[in-house]
Amino acid sequence: MCLADFERAAAAVLPPDVRDFIAGGSGGEITLDANRAALDRVFLLPRILRDVTEVSTRTRLLGTPAALPIAVAPIAYHRLVHPDGEIATARAARAAGAPFTASTLSSVPIEEITAVGGTVWFQLYWLRDTARTLDLVRRAEDAGCSAIVLTVDVPWMGRRLRDVRNRFTLPGHVRAANVETGAAAHERSANASALAVHTSRTFSSALTWSSVAALRKLTGLPLVLKGVLAPEDALRAAEFGVDAVVVSNHGGRQLDGAVPSVDALPEVARAVSGSCEVLLDSGIRSGPDVLRALALGASGVLVGRPLLWGLAADGEAGAARVLELLAEELRDALGLAGCDGVAAAARLRTVRAGSSVERSPEAWAPRARAEV
Predict the structure, then answer these.
(1) CA 170, 11, 122, 289 torsion: positive or negative?
(2) Does 305 show up as a binding residue in the annotation?
(3) Is residue 157 within 8 Å of residue 200, measured between CB atoms?
(4) Confidence (pLDDT) at 186
(5) CATH code, domain carrying 18
(6) Would you say residue 294 lies in a domain?
(7) Binding site annotation covers 125?
(8) Is 362 among the domain residues?
(9) Residue 314, annotated ligand binder?
(10) What are the FMN hydroxy acid dehydrogenase domain coordinates in residue numbering (predicted)?
(11) I want to staple 309 with a disulfide (CB 3.0 to 4.6 A). Which of 6, 116, 215, 349 is the partner?
C-alpha cells in the first residue's frame, strides 16, 4: 500500500549485512535521519476551486518526455538483492516511463541495461585512471545512454559504520560489470568495509572543475552534476554548461552532518534561476514528497532505495509496483493540491513547521481576482 511496506518485506528476505549496506548512512547517520525529518517539516498550501478532472504527471526531464517527474537514482550492485539485478529495475523504469540511471558500479554491463529500452542515463564516477573514465563515457554514448550524471561528492566513500561492523564484502556472484575491480571488493578486512577499500583504490580524489570542463568538452550528451548542495556550486555548474544539478547528500551516505537535501533545494533553485534544471535526491518516499520537491523548485526527483526494496521483495514486479505507487500517490497529491499537472505544482506555496508561509521559487504576486 505504500513504499514502507516494501522496505519491511525486503528486510524479511535480505541478509542483514546487505540490508544494512542499502539502508545505512555514514557516521552517526545524522544526515540520513535528517533527510526524512526535513521533508516531513515541509507543508503544502493547497489551492481550491480548480478543475482537476484531468490530472497529468507527464513532464520533460533533461529535454526528454517522461511519464513522471521521477528518475531512478544510480545505485550500485542491484544483483545483491535479486539475480536479475539492473535488468529488472530498468524494465520497471521503462514500463513506468521514468529514466533509469545506470551506475558505474552496476552489476550488469551498461550495454545490457540499455538493450532493455526506455531512457537510460549513465552515472559516472571519476576514476584514478582518467583515460578509463573517458572510455566509460564513450561506452555509455555508444550504448545509447541519453545523459551523463557525474557524481561529485565521493572523493572517497564515507565512513559507513554498519558496513565496517559487518566487515561487508561483495558475494562472489556480484561484481562491478563496467569496471575492473580486482579482488578488493570481495576480500574481508578486519576493520573495514571491502567496498570502501575498493573505492579508495579506484576513485579519484582529484575531481575538480577542470574535470567538469573536460567532460563538457568530450560529450554532447546532457551533463548532470549529482551531489550539489551549496548554491554557489550550483551557479558555477551552470556557468560551466551543465544541463542539470542534482541537489543531493548521497542519501546521507557521505558527509554526516551535511544539510538535508530538501533544505538546500530552494537556495539552489534561486541561484541557478532557470539556467539549468534542478533535481532533488535523498529521502523521497511518497508522492507528496515529490510534490514538495516540485513546489520548492525542483523539476523532478531521483528515487533510490525504494526500488531496491521492491526488487528484493518481488523482483521486477516489486520494482514496478514501487513506481506505480509513486505515480498513483503523485496524481492524488497533485489533484488534492489543486494542480492539474506538474507545471502547476511549481506555483504552490509551502510552510515549514513552525514558520510562516513561504513563497515558491517561481515568482508569485497577487493577481486580479478574475485570474485567481
Answers:
(1) negative
(2) yes
(3) yes
(4) 83
(5) 3.20.20.70
(6) yes
(7) yes
(8) no
(9) no
(10) 1-355
(11) 6
What is the number of other CB atoms lying within 10 angstroms of the CB of residue 165?
13
CA atoms within 13 A on the CB side of 30: 7
Beta strands in the chain (DSSP E): 42-45, 59-61, 64-66, 70-72, 100-102, 120-124, 148-151, 223-228, 244-247, 277-281, 300-303, 349-352, 357-358
pLDDT tops 70 at residue 370: no
The set of cell numbers assigned to 348 is 504552490
Query: Side chain identity at 12, as an amino acid letter?
Result: A
304 is annotated as contributing to ligand binding: yes
59, part of any domain = yes
Which three cell numbers mark 311?
Answer: 526488487
The pLDDT tens digits for 7-46 are 999 999 999 999 999 999 999 999 999 999 999 999 999 9
Residue 236 in marked binding region: no
- Give the total number of structural domains in the chain: 1
Q: Please check whether residue 184 is in contact with residue 192, taking contact to mean a CB–CB distance below 8 angstroms.
A: no
From CA 307, how far away is CA 172, in angstroms rounded? 23
> Is 250 assigned a catalytic role?
yes
Residue 283, marked binder: yes
Q: In what order do the strands lie in the sheet with 357-358?
A: 42-45, 349-352, 357-358
- Determine which one of 78, 82, 198, 250 is catalytic: 250
Kindly state whether residue 35 falls inside one of the protein's structural domains. yes
pTM for this model (two decimals): 0.94
288 CB neighbour count, 10 Å cutoff: 21
Sort strands 42-45 and 59-61 into parallel, antiparallel or unpaired. unpaired
Average pLDDT rounded to a whole number, residues 82-95: 98
What is the chain's length?
372
The C-alpha cell 549529482 sits at: 226
Confidence class for position 194, pLDDT limits 50, 70, 90: confident
Domain that holds residue 107: 3-355
Q: Report DSSP letters for 162-203, one per residue.
A: HHHHHT----TT---TTS--TTGGGS--SSS-HHHHHHHHHB
In sequence order, what are the residues at sequence separation of 6 or more whose Cβ sits closer than 8 angstroms to the Cβ of residue 322?
Answer: 3, 6, 92, 303, 306, 307, 309, 310
